[in-house]
Amino acid sequence: MRGQLFSFDFLLAISIILFIFALSMFVSENTASSINRREAEFDIQRAADSALSQLVETPGNPTNWHTPDFTDANVKSIGIAASRNELDPDKTSRLFFIANSNFGNYSLVKRILALDLPSSNFSIAISNASKYAIFETMVSPAGTASVHSFSRIAIFENEPVLVNLRMWVEK
Predict the structure, then answer these.
(1) How far, in Å, CA of 33 to CA of 76, rounded?
(2) In angstroms, what CA-CA distances link 34 with 39, 43, 44?
(3) What is the pLDDT of residues 138-155, one digit of tens each?
(4) Whether pTM exceeds 0.90
């Protein structure tokens, strides 16, 4: 078989090299996608943990943030605690009133709590020991969202409650 431009061995070697190259591209693409997904989940977890800590452990800044002038110029942070893990009834009801109003305040609350990740939304619920929601925001995830739930135990009017923060990314 002298004089042939391509031998069978050469074609086989090129095919194997191309297969290995295509396989490595596929594996690296899947690995990058998996890493990006994990980083996004970590960002959500970090933001939710920070927001829950801010809510149930601090009174907010300024401490009278719940007064009628609620703007991002006047409010640096939102906290509903009278003391660590003990919720102030006035601040708690005001937070849910503000978050559920139709005047764009949900976005403002989202921004002040640092929950404004790309394509994400959140909801907060405070439930008593019977799992009855005492307060909750009126935003809920669409059917295709991946929902992450985070909770803290606190005291509200001398009763234990569960403060639950759900975050999701719309797909």
Answers:
(1) 35
(2) 9, 14, 15
(3) 887 777 667 888 999 999
(4) no
